[in-house]
C-alpha cells in the first residue's frame, strides 16, 4: 500500500522520499527509513489504522486537533470517550474511529509546557516521550500496522516545536528499532513552520543511506 492510497481525499503534499541527503547523526538500518514518512495536512483525512489525538485529561474533546477529530468522527466517539474516565499526562487510550476514515483514534495527553526550571523541562520531556511510547505500544498491542501522529503539545499546550520534534523522532526511532510489527509511522504536520522543522530533523534520526 503506497502512502497515496492512504488518503481518502487529498493527495499527499509531501513525503519523506523527497528529503535531501544530509549528514547522519548515527547510522540506521535502511528498512527503518521505509517505515516513516512526513505528511502535511489534516489528520482527520487519513485512512490508516490509527491516528493519534492530542487530547486533554478529560478525553472529552477540546480545541485544535482534538476538536477537529471529534467533529469529523461524530457523536459515537464522544460517547465511547465518556466511558474511558479520562487519562493522565503521558498516558494513551484507544477508541474506534467512527465516521473517520481512520479505524482507531489513540488519545494521548501531552504536557502543558511552561519553563520554570531545568527539572520542569526534564519532566515535560519525559511526559511527551511517554505520549509517543504509550501510543506506539497500544498500536502494537492491538496489532495495528499504521499510526499517524500529530505534533503533540506543540499547539495550544505550547511545547517548543524543535524540542518536541526531537522527542517525537527519537522515541519513534528507538521504538521501531526493537519493534518490527509496525509498518508505517506518519508524522503529520499542519503548518509550514512545523513541516520545515521535521524536514530538517528527520534525516538526523532516519538518515537516507
Ligand atoms: P496541544 O493542545 O497538544 O498543543 P493542538 O491541537 O493545539 O494540541 O496542536 C497540536 C498540533 O496539531 C499543532 O501542531 C497543530 O498545528 C496541529 N493541528 C491542528 N489541527 C490539526 C489537524 N486537523 N490535523 C493535523 N494537525 C493539526
UniProtKB/TrEMBL annotation:
CDD domains: Macro_OAADPr_deacetylase (cd02908)
SUPFAM superfamilies in alphabetical order: Macro domain-like
InterPro entries associated with the record: Macro_dom, Macro_dom-like
Protein name as annotated: Macro domain-containing protein
Superkingdom of origin organism: Eukaryota
Matches recorded under Pfam families: Macro
Domain Macro intervals: 23-206
Amino acid at each position: 500500500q503506497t502512502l497515496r492510497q492512504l488518503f481518502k481525499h487529498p493527495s499527499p503534499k509531501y513525503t519523506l522520499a523527497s528529503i535531501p541527503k544530509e549528514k547522519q547523526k548515527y547510522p540506521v538500518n535502511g528498512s527503518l527509513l521505509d517505515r516513516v514518512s512526513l505528511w502535511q495536512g489534516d489528520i482527520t483525512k487519513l485512512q490508516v489504522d490509527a491516528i493519534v489525538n492530542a487530547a486533554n485529561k478529560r478525553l472529552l474533546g477540546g480545541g485544535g486537533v482534538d476538536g477537529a477529530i471529534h467533529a469529523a468522527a461524530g457523536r459515537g466517539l464522544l460517547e465511547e470517550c465518556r466511558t474511558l474516565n479520562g487519562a493522565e499526562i503521558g498516558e494513551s487510550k484507544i477508541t474506534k474511529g467512527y465516521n473517520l476514515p481512520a479505524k482507531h483514534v489513540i488519545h494521548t495527553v501531552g504536557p502543558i509546557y511552561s519553563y520554570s526550571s531545568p527539572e520542569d523541562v526534564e519532566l515535560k520531556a519525559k511526559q511527551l516521550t511517554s505520549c509517543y511510547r504509550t501510543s506506539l505500544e497500544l498500536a502494537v498491542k492491538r496489532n495495528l500496522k499504521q499510526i499517524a501522529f500529530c505534533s503533540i503539545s506543540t499547539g495550544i499546550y505550547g511545547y517548543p516545536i524543535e524540542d518536541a520534534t526531537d522527542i517525537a523522532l527519537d522515541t519513534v526511532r528507538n521504538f521501531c528499532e526493537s519493534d518490527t510489527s509496525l509498518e508505517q509511522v506518519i508524522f503529520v504536520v499542519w503548518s509550514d513552520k512545523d513541516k520545515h522543522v521535521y524536514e530538517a530533523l528527520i534525516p538526523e534520526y532516519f538518515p537516507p543511506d
